[in-house]
Amino acid sequence: MSHKRNLAQEELRDRAREEIRKGRLPNSTPASIWAGLGSGLPCAVCGHAIAATQVEYEVGDPSSTGSFRFHLPCHTEWQVECGVIPCDDSTPTLPGG
User: Fold this and answer.
1) Which pLDDT score is estimated for 6?
2) Which stretches of the chain drop beneath a pLDDT of 50?
3) Contact 44, 58 (CB under 8 A)
4) Rounded to whole angstroms, what are the CA distances from 77 to 18, 28, 65?
5) Helices marked H in 1-97 — which ranges?
6) Which of 65, 86, 87, 94 is 20 to 30 A from 74, comparing alpha carbons?
């Protein structure tokens, strides 16, 4: 794993943790996740638009009828912060990341 990738993961995890702390993201993942091509809307973790050439993960907001949208790496780090994915050095990285 490259140093650059470690920093990117750490930064995304920090952002996810901060969004949870501020109440902007839930601290647990919902039962359903949808995936499809990007809608151009911003990612709930990094704030960057999810392009039509990227995969977008969408999860329902348990406190409303809205939803949250994520890039794959952002969704993964949010799941780590929710305790769904263990956080350790053996967590695999994605190719091209």
Assistant:
1) 58
2) 1-3, 89-97
3) no
4) 12, 12, 23
5) 3-21, 72-82
6) 65
Long-range contacts of 20-29 (CB under 8 A, 24+ apart): 20/78, 20/81, 20/82, 25/68, 25/78, 26/61, 26/62, 26/63, 26/82, 27/81, 27/82, 28/62, 28/82, 29/59, 29/78, 29/79, 29/82, 29/84
The four Cα atoms 71, 75, 77, 83 give a dihedral, to 10 degrees, of 180
Contacts of 67 (CB under 8 A, 6+ apart): 58, 59, 60, 61
Of 67, 75, 73, 78, residue with least CA distance to 41 = 67
Rounded CA separation 82/56 (Å): 19
pTM: 0.76
Structure tokens at 49: 């638009």
Find residue 35's DSSP bridge partners. 57
